[in-house]
Each structure stands twice: as C-alpha cells, then as structure tokens.
Amino acid sequence: MSPILFWFFTILMLGFALAVVFNRNPVASALSLVVSFIGLAALFFQLDANFIGTIQVLVYAGAVMVLFLFIIMLLDLKAEQRRRLNLPATAGGILVVAAFVAQLMAVLHRFGAGKHAFPPLAPGADDVRSVGQALFSTYNLPFQVVGTLILVATIGVIVLSKRELK
Amino acid sequence: MVTLNDYLLASGLLFAIGFAGVLLRRNIIIIFMCLELMLNAANLSLVAFSRFNLQNGLPNYNAQVFVFFIITVAAAEVAVGLAIIVALFRARQTTHVEDINSLKF
Question: Is residue B104 a part of any domain in this protein?
Fold first, then answer.
C-alpha cells in the first residue's frame, strides 16, 4: 500500500466529487462523477478488494453513469441559470456540513485503534473465491432476495415509463 | 504509512461532499448523483474495516459481501429513481426542486 498512490487517488476522488457539486452543467457533473468513482475503485484495489473494485468500475463507472448520461441527454438539460440563492438554506447547509466534518475530525483524533498501519495479508489470499463462497453459502438467501428486488425494480421502471398510468 | 484513520478520513470527507451537494444543489439529477457519492463513501469505510480486521491473515469477507449487496441495491435504486425523474419531467417540464412543491405544507 503505497502512500503516494493512496494520496493521489484520494485527492483525485475528492477533487472530482467537489467538481460534481460545483459544476453548473449536468453533463460535466456526470463525467466528473465517473472520474471520482474510478479513483474510489483504485482505493478498493489498494485495500486488496479486487472483486469490489472490479464491480465498482463495471456497475458504477459503467452501467449507472451511462444511465445518468442517457437521462440527462433525454431531458436535454441546459446549464443551470444563476438563480437567486436561498440564503438561509445555503447557510444552514454549509453549517451542517461544517459541523459534520468537525465531529469527524474529533472522533478520528480520539480513535487510537485506527492509528496503525494495515497488517500484512496472508500469501495466497483469493478474495474473488472467498467472496463468491460466502455469497453462495452463508448469504445465499439474501442473494436470492436481491435478485428478486432487481426483478421488481425492472418491472417498476417499465410501469413508470409508460405514457399513461392506469 | 497509510493508516486506517486515513481511509476513514477520505470516506468521511467524500460523505461530507455528497451531503453538501444534496443540501446546496437544486437540480434533482445532481442531488441524485450526490446521493450516490454518499453511498460510495459508506462502502469505502466498510472495505477499509474489512482489510484492517484480519482473521488468520485474511480480510473479513462478510463486509465485502455487504458492500456487494449495497452496490446491487444502489443500482436498482438508480434505475427506479431516474424513471421517477423522467415521469416527473413529463408531468412538470422541470428538474428544479423548488418548482416541485405540491407536497409542501
């Protein structure tokens, strides 16, 4: 786990996440989100979670972002006009986020157990095999339930996309 | 040396950025993207904890299975959410949250 790579990908991820929030053009926001997700996938790879990192690239940077871009193009959204800022709401939002970050810093400062480096992995650790085994033995029932959930979501999307709901 | 706290800090900051986006932006699609950022921040801390708590030299794979389920449910959520946004756009011709206030008291 190289510190230089860790900080590079963390800054990439956070910088493009900020670009998602502050871009006025929705297409630019969506493309920034892709880069942010790829940075996150790189962090997963650094944590030796190869399976999760691959899924992250395939599902998020691939499928989900194509869906987002599709909808943005379909609705033909233009860059937002500069509207008058709702001052109390904006100030309240910034205050809540600042409080969250301050509390995060305080908790992490006191969390002594997390101030150690990651212990080395045993040789021959195969995360795809282990995750697959857990998925199809211990977590077989939740796996089936998630499959049903996706089926229901697909049917729901088809019903929602009909011109007239009956 | 990269510690667990560094990963938790990155995850918390990503969550805070997503949270700020949900609170500050007024375009419903951007709000939806920021929700995805927050989900991914939670995933990052789960994977970091899984790698940190080794059992016999192996990461705790239960956390990675949990992350897999979160990603699956999030993908279903994106599909349904975007379908709702398209239906809303057909009815109101807007994606601006301040123009959609018929449920507001």
Answer: no
